[in-house]
Design goal:
31% strand; Aminopeptidase; alpha+beta; 7-stranded mixed β-sheet; 169 residues
């Protein structure tokens, strides 16, 4: 296994981030497993005031990523559907890992790092979503303390909706 370094993704990583997105999404066996990033979302990932993004790096090569979207616009429909409208909610996810680096615990490690970061934000909950048939994503999510609360369509994408409590009630 490689000696991977985990660190924040910053603006200078934009080219590598775009390449990671292109390669991983281009290799998906089932396109519905990942909701494609819009250009606005990619720009937000590179804006540390809007997104906390972490990457897994192998000798400075970005091989995996995940993020916390701090803007609640990304979770408005979910908040209504699971009846937590009055709570402060962020989205945790968007995991991408190059195929040759999968099954090395990268997604799990990114989720651990991002969950710790989420605890520091002052938000009440983190929402994590995955296609019901995406076994690896659902498995990693289940290893966190997130609980499955609903399966629903987000636009054209069927998703399991997991809720991770960040603040004690």
């Amino acid at each position: 296994m490689s000696n991977l370094i985990y660190r924040r993704i910053v603006k200078k990583d934009e080219k590598q981030l775009r390449e990671l997105i292109k390669v991983v999404l281009g290799d998906l066996e089932r396109l519905e497993f990942f909701v494609p990033f819009s250009e606005e979302e990619i720009q937000d990932i590179l804006d540390e005031s809007k997104v906390i993004a972490y990457g897994a790096y192998d000798n400075e090569k970005l091989v995996g990523s995940g993020q916390l979207f701090l803007d609640e616009k990304y979770v408005e429909d979910i908040k209504k559907a699971i009846k937590i409208d009055d709570s402060k909610v962020l989205e945790l996810g968007g995991y991408l890992v190059l195929e040759e680096y999968r099954n090395q615990g990268i997604m799990k490690k990114l989720q651990e790092i991002l969950s710790k970061e989420a605890q520091k934000t002052g938000f009440d909950y983190a929402v994590i979503t995955a296609h019901p048939d995406n076994v690896s994503s659902n498995s990693v999510i289940k290893h966190s303390k997130a609980r499955l609360v609903k399966t629903m369509n987000l636009g054209e994408f069927l998703r399991n909706i997991y809720l991770l409590q960040l603040k004690e009630k």
